[in-house]
From TrEMBL:
It holds the Pfam family MFS_1. Keywords: Membrane, Transmembrane, Transmembrane helix. The chain crosses the membrane at residues 20-37, 57-79, 91-109, 115-137, 149-170, 182-201, 222-244, 256-276, 288-306, 312-335, 347-368, 380-398. InterPro entries: MFS (IPR011701), MFS_Cyanate_Porter (IPR052524), MFS_trans_sf (IPR036259). It comes from Methylobacterium crusticola. The keyword Membrane applies. This is Transporter YycB.
């Protein structure tokens, strides 16, 4: 049983602290946090055509706007493990949520400078939270890691769907342009921070210790395989977040319908994001799941880019199911391939920190491929190649082994 569930009293006294450590309370807090980890990313794509029309944003800068936050997930995600050690994982999550809310608010102040700076700040908060959460799951739910990973991944996908589908309607309801629609997403992030505050008070930070074990994982091939799978499947997802609405608009859909298709796809992610971690954690070998969850988004995305428009909703469903399963499996592998919460935190920092940096190349390359080819055939081919690479590394990472820090 993890320390967080033993009922040891925190600074505020026995009963309250024990109540806050209950699995239900912790789980609800994690779900609320998870919902806020994707609207900052998925809300940009539906507004991108309007932003470009209003500001004259070039294709290259539009690609940078899509790519930069993904790169920041990796760059700032590397800070998650040191922050958790210095101030505690609970306080680290709270601080990162406040950074996320500040970035979301900054995006809506107007102008491209604020938009880019706010996107970087929001992605920094998301990257730090994302790295810390697997360690919290390993600590507080040692026997239900698959279930909890599935639940918060499903809520994360719900947040992505909300960002993709509600941002354009928010823009029209608020009547404040794209700036107000982007700023509105700061509100639920602040709510999540307030909900998590009691856990920080009930569980004080540990004494600052020495250096972490992250560097020692760099010599472990399995850690690199988990990292590669995390990065490649993330690249598949962020290509969709950044370019699917624009691709659908070019194929003849209006911005609202394009956003709804992207939202349906994101909403469908929650299904396999919940099912795959729960079932995969029951097996010692997760390789069969790799073939399923990577194949679905490749078929779905290529179908949306090149297939008959009459089947667009079906392709969107396949795409969402696959991406949700990919992300859920990637997070589950981090938990399963680690022997203890500390190693899980270090592996999470490595897999997400390095993986997201590599994932940022995907949306950037798709933007270049589309601009140079003038169509979506070359981007589709690139997506297939990334899917094949994700399958290869996923099959290696899904074997029944654990990383061995050296």
């Amino acid at each position: 049983m993890a320390a967080g569930r033993r009922g040891a009293a925190g600074p505020g006294g026995g009963t309250t602290a024990r109540g806050l450590r209950s699995p239900v309370a912790i789980g609800l807090g994690l779900m609320l946090i998870a919902f806020n980890l994707r609207p900052a990313l998925s809300s940009v794509g539906p507004l991108l055509p309007g932003i470009r029309a209003e500001t004259g944003l070039s294709g290259a800068l539009a690609g940078a706007l899509v790519t930069l936050p993904v790169l920041c997930l990796g760059v700032f995600g590397r800070l998650g493990s040191p922050i958790a050690r210095r101030i505690g994982p609970d306080a680290g999550v709270l601080a990162a949520l406040l950074v996320l809310a500040a970035g979301l608010a900054l995006r809506g102040l107007g102008g491209l400078g604020a938009l880019f700076a706010g996107s970087v700040l929001a992605a920094a908060g998301i990257g730090i939270v994302g790295v810390i959460l697997p360690g919290i799951v390993k600590r507080d739910f040692p026997d239900q890691g698959g279930l909890m990973t599935g639940l918060y991944t499903a809520l994360l996908c719900l947040g992505a769907a909300a960002g993709a589908g509600l941002t354009v309607p928010l823009e029209r309801v608020l009547g404040t342009g794209w700036e107000g629609a982007m700023m509105a997403w700061a509100a639920p992030a602040l709510v999540a921070a307030l909900a998590w505050l009691p856990f920080v008070r009930a569980r004080p930070a540990p004494a600052a210790g020495g250096g972490g074990a992250l560097g020692s994982l760099w010599g472990d091939p399995l850690a690199w395989q988990v990292t590669a799978f995390m990065g490649l499947q993330s690249s598949l997802a962020y290509i969709v977040f950044g370019w699917l609405p624009a691709a659908l608009t070019e194929r003849g859909y209006d911005t609202v319908t394009a956003g709804l298709l992207a939202s349906v796809s994101a909403l469908a992610q929650g299904v396999l994001a919940l099912v795959v971690p729960t079932l995969a954690a029951r097996r010692r070998d997760q390789r069969p799941w790799v073939l399923v969850v990577v194949g679905l988004p490749v078929v779905g995305f290529c179908g949306l880019l090149l297939g008959p428009l009459a089947f667009a909703w079906g392709f969107a469903l396949l795409l969402g199911l696959g991406l949700g399963g990919c992300f859920g499996l990637a997070l589950t592998l981090i938990v399963l391939r680690a022997r203890d919460p500390r190693t899980a935190g270090d592996l999470s920092a490595m897999a997400q920190g390095i993986g997201y940096c590599g994932a940022a190349l995907g949306p950037f390359l798709v933007g270049i491929a589309h601009e140079r080819s003038g169509g979506w055939g070359l981007p589709a081919a690139l997506y297939v190649a990334l899917g094949l690479a994700a399958t290869g590394f996923g099959l290696l990472a899904a074997r029944d082994r654990t990383v061995l820090p050296q």
